Amino acid sequence: MRFKNTLFLLLIFSSSSILSGQQYIDDLGSEFHKKKRQEFREQMPQNSIAFFFTAPIMKRSNDTDFMYHQDPNFYYLSGWREPHGVLVIFKDDQQDNNGLYNEILYVREKNEYREMWDGRRLGLNGAKQMGFDRVKLRSNFIKDPFQIQNFSNVLSMDVRDDVRDFKDDKYDLYDIQNKFLEIIDDKEELSGLGDIKKEFKNSSVNNIMSSLRQTKDSLEIKLLTKAIKISSLAQIEVMKAIHGEMTEREVQGIHEFIYRKYGAAHEGYNSIVGAGANSCILHYVTNEDINIDNELILMDLGAEYRGYTADVTRTIPVNGKFSPEQKEIYDLVYESQEEAIKKAIIGNTFNDIYVESLEIISRGLIKLGIINDPKEARKYYPHGVSHHIGLDVHDPGSRTLEKNMVITVEPGIYIPENSDCDPKWWNIGVRIEDDILITDTEPINLSEDAPRSSNEIEKIMKLDSPINQLILPDIND
């Protein structure tokens, strides 16, 4: 008997070997982050100071934490991946005994005992190699006498309130943020302006970061392309390997094994793998169905490579052949996506892409007898069609397209059981999602390696898979 959780052991061994060695590799390089800090500084208000905090360490259960993931804005501006730190950026040059400076990075201390348990820390020397000429320990942030009254504007992202129980040595992020709030209180008292929220606005930071992150530099596009290629390859390998005895979780495991095999240490978001009725749940992430034979399976997953995440969705028939009803719905979604991608050009908006896809889906659903009025289409196509991707799977950015944006185009049709249509359509959920680079000319589909048409999918699903050569012992009674 075939053991259904085929790849779990491979996944564990592969992950441990890839993640060992150097603490982290930053493929963007210190010059990239330095450039982004300068671009941020240029957009700051006059006579302003900005504070950025690292992401908190999040507890998973009891004394176990989630894998640490840096705040994307902090990483974008610094390249720093460790917790318990602060980045301070000044609009104008400041003066100290060592000369002029316009930024400070505060980092946690080296600690031989904690590093034995939790991994190496880069410390002050490592931070200096990231291109900062003013690097201090986080303890200095607690003690430094910021002359906040001298600044007209104080900028920061939201201060997180979920960091209380994550003590680390003497100073943790909670202490650091309390210090920041004291600074803000001092500013309020000294300025006489009353409501400090008029000055301490995260909207300014959000707007600046959105304008910076929405278009990608060549290095970012390179990393995104790698993440997308890995994700597309995983879709191909699953098409070749899938069979009716698999489970949703085993399908998820194949995708994530391929990610690890090619050096992607994480997923960019919770993997969505839903068969049959589960394909009609937009953000289905439990992936626990064990009976998937003869169903469509919707697979929305993305590898995160060096911080940048793909977002690729394919929907395929588990048995390798679309039923007539499945094919009708699939081909309609495919047609709508083909035309919608053509709208992904400079100057168009997300709405232009959406309207194109919606019109095609509306006409198709009427033709199939599933709806009678175009207005009913939203019942079966309930979501938008595009978003930015980058350091976040839903990256910030404008809805008007510019060169070097990378966006998704992802129409879908979902017909759950008991819908107001012929039962032959029930439990058919289809989404096709690709990652599109906006260029001076035509859009480039970065995930085109993964087959999209129903005929191409059926053809590749006939190929043999090396994954199915691995047969593990059955451990059931």
Helix and strand composition category: alpha+beta
* Secondary structure: number of strands: 18
Q: Which oligomerization state do the chains in this entry correspond to?
A: single chain
Integer-rounded radius of gyration: 25 Å
Please give the count of helices: 13
> What strand line-up does the widest sheet have?
6-5-4-1-7
Helix content: 25-40%
For the record, the CATH class of the largest domain is Alpha Beta
What is the CATH superfamily of the largest domain?
Answer: Creatinase/methionine aminopeptidase superfamily
Portion of residues in beta strands equals: 15-25%
CATH topology of the largest domain: Creatine Amidinohydrolase
Going by CATH, the architecture of the largest domain would be Alpha-Beta Complex
Task: Kindly report how far apart the N and C termini lie.
Answer: 12 Å
The averaged pLDDT comes out at: 88
Largest sheet: 5 strands, mixed
Shape descriptor: globular
The total number of structural domains is: 2
What does this structure look like?
This protein is an alpha+beta fold and 477 residues long. It folds into 2 domains: 44-213, Creatine Amidinohydrolase, Chain A, domain 1; 218-469, Creatinase/methionine aminopeptidase superfamily (Creatine Amidinohydrolase), CATH 3.90.230. It is 35% helix and 17% strand. The chain contains 13 helices and 18 strands. The protein has helices at residues 8-19, 30-43, 72-78, 112-118, 123-128, 138-143, 173-191, 202-213, 218-241, 248-261, 324-342, 350-367, 454-460, and strands at 48-53, 59-61, 64-65, 86-96, 99-107, 135-137, 153-156, 266-267, 272-275, 296-301, 303-305, 308-309, 312-317, 406-409, 412-415, 428-431, 434-437, 444-445. Strands 6-5-4-1-7 form a 5-stranded mixed β-sheet, sandwiched between helices. Strands 8-11-12 form a 3-stranded antiparallel β-sheet. A hairpin with a 2-residue loop joins strand 11 and strand 12 (308-309). The longest helix has 24 residues, at 218-241. The relative contact order is 0.12. The model is unreliable at 1-24, 163-167 and 186-200 (pLDDT under 50).
